[in-house]
Specification:
heterodimer; A: mainly alpha; 79% helix; flat; B: 2 domains; five-stranded mixed sheet; 12 helices; 13 strands; globular
Chain lengths: 219, 287
């Protein structure tokens, strides 16, 4: 391995890491918001919107991100809707992640015995209060492992961004290999930079998971 | 919880180990098949493009077609083996040879000094330069016409990309990893121009209305040649003899007429075709 090659590539990988992180976290943020919105709609049993949520979740969970990005980036401009590559990236991740988050939250909520909701309601709490103070905190604890898995999954899904010309980590490595053929150096750097990006997330998630255990009452 | 953390550490160590393994030179050796080994196995793996019409593409009936494929078919016949076509992208042509995934790359591979360090090129069979195509209502006739915020579409791993990165680093590039995507993006107006092999952009402007090749020739005149894994001498020598022999029967003119005539017309035939590996001005090379 040629260290001078590695040193000269590091700035490019750093830029790629920043771009990957920026778009990745925007995607994760939107995934949370969308996932929460879907969960609220389901829990409050809002008619019509519930159906929309079901269609959305099934559509997005059962198509690859690659296909979704193709659609956003290459198909929409044909009907006059033009979205920049970066927005396509975070939007794609957000929409895909939202569907996954909605399912993860749901499984967390399913974990909570119906008697808890019934007790809260019989104590005179409103439906919203029941969700906010009784159900959600426990569900958050139960779904933490799933949420963490989703976050890591979404950050790794950035590796298909090359199709919409975003210079993420994966594409930067492929691009450099294509130009200068330093395969070993490029791929080693690639593994290292993915670890730099994802190991802290794993560790942080583990800590969070432990802290949220307070809600696991009586199990 | 403890278990999770332990797993994370193990994963990290494994990854680093993998990195170290990749770095060891032992893996890079002997990743090719000799001519005899190919003949014995009865199949040759040839890397071609699947989306670069009219040089290498998958036709309506699902078969590989084009100028490169026409040559590949002939090579298979003369070797007496079946051909297993492997679809490649521009950026992974070198890797496919280095890892032995293919025996020959016939994917419109331009000969450059950088690439010649990584793979062995046989005698050339086509001329090429770079070209830039742009919409006719905003023609780019020189690289100076490209504004500060304008983006030029290129395909990752092509000579056009390398040329612009090296010689015009101020130009913003929008990179794609496949021809099909770059073309769609260009049609959607995502960039002011598309830089690629001039053969490719000329074909694009002929096939699509509203586009002009404002810069028909950029950079040096290059050639396109088959490539084999570095050090695969038996296969390389056979290919060179084959190309010289094919030149005697004017094979590449026939190839042009079968695959490129519809796109380029007869005008480009003598500028594009190289017969018997003899580049104009250096006939000795064919000897």
């Amino acid at each position: 391995m040629d260290m001078s090659v590695i040193n000269s590539y590091i700035p490019l990988y750093r830029d790629a890491l920043l771009l990957t992180l920026r778009i990745g976290w925007q995607g994760v943020f939107w995934a949370f918001i969308i996932g929460l919105g879907c969960t609220l709609i389901r829990q409050l049993r809002i008619p019509v919107l519930r159906g929309v949520v079901t269609v959305y979740v099934e559509l997005l969970r059962n198509t690859p991100l690659l296909v979704q990005l193709f659609f956003l980036y290459f198909a929409l401009p044909k009907i006059g809707i033009r979205i920049s590559a970066e927005v396509c990236g975070s939007l794609g991740l957000g929409l895909l992640g939202g569907a996954y988050m909605a399912e993860t939250f749901r499984s967390g909520l399913d974990n909570i015995a119906p008697v808890q909701e019934e007790s809260a309601l019989s104590l005179g709490m409103s439906r919203y209060q029941t969700l906010r103070y009784v159900i959600f905190p426990q569900a958050a604890s139960a779904s933490m492992a799933g949420i963490l898995a989703n976050v890591i999954f979404l950050l790794k899904e950035t590796s298909v961004f090359s199709v919409i010309s975003l210079m993420d980590l994966m594409f930067t490595a492929k691009d450099l290999i294509g130009m200068y053929a330093k395969t070993i150096e490029c791929l080693t750097l690639l593994v290292m930079f993915y670890l730099i990006m994802l190991l802290p997330v794993s560790l942080l998630g583990t800590v969070l998971e432990r802290r949220l255990r307070f809600a696991e009452f009586g199990n | 919880m403890k278990k999770i953390r332990k797993n994370t550490i193990i994963a990290a160590l494994t990854a680093l180990g993998l990195g170290a393994a990749l770095a060891s030179p032992a893996l890079a050796d002997e990743s090719f098949r000799t001519l005899d080994e190919i003949k014995e196995s009865g199949t040759i793996n040839i890397g071609v493009f699947s989306d670069k019409s009219p040089f290498g593409y998958v036709g309506e009936n699902g078969d590989y077609q084009g100028y490169d494929v026409y040559l590949a078919e002939h090579l298979g016949e003369d070797l007496g083996v079946e051909i297993n076509y492997v679809s490649t992208e521009a950026a992974n042509r070198i890797e496919y040879l280095q890892t032995g995934k293919v025996d020959i790359i016939l994917a419109n591979f331009t000969v450059t000094p950088e690439r010649a360090e990584e793979v062995d090129f046989a005698l050339p069979y086509m001329n090429v330069a770079l070209g830039v195509v742009s919409p006719e209502d905003a023609v780019i006739e020189s690289l100076d016409d490209i504004g500060e915020d304008d983006q030029v579409i290129v395909i990752s791993g092509t000579t056009a990309e390398t040329y612009l990165v090296k010689n015009n680093p101020e130009i913003k590039l929008q990179k794609y990893d496949a021809y099909a995507e770059a073309k769609t993006a260009f049609e959607n107006g995502n960039g002011v121009a598309w830089a690629n092999d001039n053969t490719e952009v000329i074909a694009f402007s002929i096939e699509n209305e509203g586009y002009v090749v404002g810069i028909p020739s950029l950079g040096s005149a290059d050639t396109i040649a088959p490539a084999v894994t570095k050090g695969n001498e038996t296969l390389l020598n056979w290919l060179n003899e084959e190309i010289v022999a094919l030149g005697e029967e004017n094979f590449f003119h026939a190839d042009y007429e079968a695959t490129l005539l519809d796109t380029y017309g007869a005008d480009y035939e003598d500028t594009l075709v190289i017969e018997g590996g003899a580049v104009a001005g250096s006939e000795t090379e064919a000897e």
